[in-house]
Write a structure and sequence with these properties.
157 residues, mainly alpha, 3-stranded parallel sheet, 3 strands
Length: 157
């Protein structure tokens, strides 16, 4: 499954590069690949390259003008289903954790539905402390992990 997603990500990077070339920005894929240094090329690598080349002032501007839906370099993502991802983690002997849940813009009821499905599929934990969580998020996620009887984790970022 991870090989399939990795193959898609490689294709997506090439396609973003092709679309940006059609918009007049040449060599973006090569520039993004150089920044990725052998790792999977992400949209963030493209954004940093475009800023460095003077096509935008900030990474945020690159996303706003080039890499979101309806813009020249946008290519939609392909993701594993929740069931697939949990299966991979469990077969590898790991415990699945929902990463930085407060970062996603979802209602409390939608988050609870996600957690319910996650638990039904064997999910084990909720990231409580994350570099993207505020102090209030940490308290709210800790309470949610307790009430949903999930393990609490702390991210390394």
């Amino acid at each position: 499954g991870l090989q399939r997603l990795s193959g898609f990500r490689d294709w997506r990077a090439r396609e973003i590069g092709r679309r940006l070339a059609r918009a007049g920005i040449r060599d973006a894929c090569e520039g993004a690949r150089a920044l990725a240094r052998g790792r999977i090329v992400s949209r963030t690598h493209f954004a940093h390259y475009l800023v460095a080349q003077g096509h935008a002032a900030t990474v945020r501007d690159v996303f706003r003008h080039y890499l979101v839906s309806g813009k020249p370099g946008y290519v939609s993502g392909e993701w594993a289903t929740l069931e697939e991802a949990l299966g991979w983690i469990q077969r590898a002997g790991g415990q699945a954790v929902i990463a930085h849940p407060a970062r996603y813009r979802m209602t409390a009821s939608k988050l609870r539905r996600l957690i319910g499905e996650f638990r039904e599929l064997g999910g084990a934990g909720l990231e409580v402390v994350s570099g993207s969580h505020t102090r209030d998020n940490v308290h709210a996620m800790a309470a949610l992990a307790r009430s949903e009887r999930l393990l609490a984790s702390c991210g390394s970022d």
